Q: What sequence folds into this?
């Protein structure tokens, strides 16, 4: 949609002694809002993004280094967390960091009548009974992260997950097309 995030990846570089990890790279994720300073919501999203990235980055190949991922929100028209996840994966891929798998973010909005909307707008998210965001790995469509806002039944969550896993195929195809365009020049 109209949500856009700019991603910059720095590293692997020398880590500060206080942040250095002896067995793997230290991954730091910074989420910058469109205006103002980062707040509690940004810190919470940073933690979700960092944990998701750590699950796929092969940091053991770069011990005692630091990798910094900076995500700058350019516009937020809904589904911001999934847009951040997709931007993070593309940045990791473009930087050539070794990854165990690719991942993508998919947001589902569960409407009051029970219908599932993929990639909802900000207004659709506000009107929804529940909003669920999933990070899905390319290998076997495993769930790396799930974040929910609102309430839904277990069956509805499973329906949203199934819809997100089907939508992930489209996003992974977009990744392939983007990489092919970039490196076929």
A:
């Amino acid at each position: 949609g109209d949500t856009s995030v700019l991603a910059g990846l720095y590293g692997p570089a020398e880590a500060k002694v206080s942040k250095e990890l002896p067995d793997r790279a230290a991954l730091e994720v910074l989420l910058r809002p469109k205006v103002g300073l980062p707040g509690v919501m940004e810190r919470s999203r940073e933690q979700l993004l960092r944990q998701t990235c750590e699950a796929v980055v092969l940091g053991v190949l770069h011990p005692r280094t630091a990798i910094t991922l900076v995500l700058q929100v350019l516009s937020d028209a809904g589904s911001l967390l999934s847009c951040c996840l997709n931007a993070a994966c593309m940045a990791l891929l473009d930087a050539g960091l070794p990854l165990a798998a690719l991942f993508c973010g998919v947001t589902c909005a569960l409407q009051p009548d029970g219908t599932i909307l993929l990639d909802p707008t900000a207004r659709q998210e506000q009107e929804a009974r529940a909003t669920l965001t999933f990070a899905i790995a390319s290998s076997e469509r495993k769930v790396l992260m799930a974040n929910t806002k609102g309430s839904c039944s277990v069956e509805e969550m499973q329906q949203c997950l199934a819809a997100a896993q089907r939508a992930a195929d489209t996003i992974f195809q977009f990744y392939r097309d983007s990489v092919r365009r970039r490196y076929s020049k």
Summary: The chain has a mean pLDDT of 92. The first strand starts at residue 4 and ends at 14. The helical segments are 40-56, 80-95, 122-127, 154-183. The CA atoms of residues 150 and 182 lie 39 Å apart.
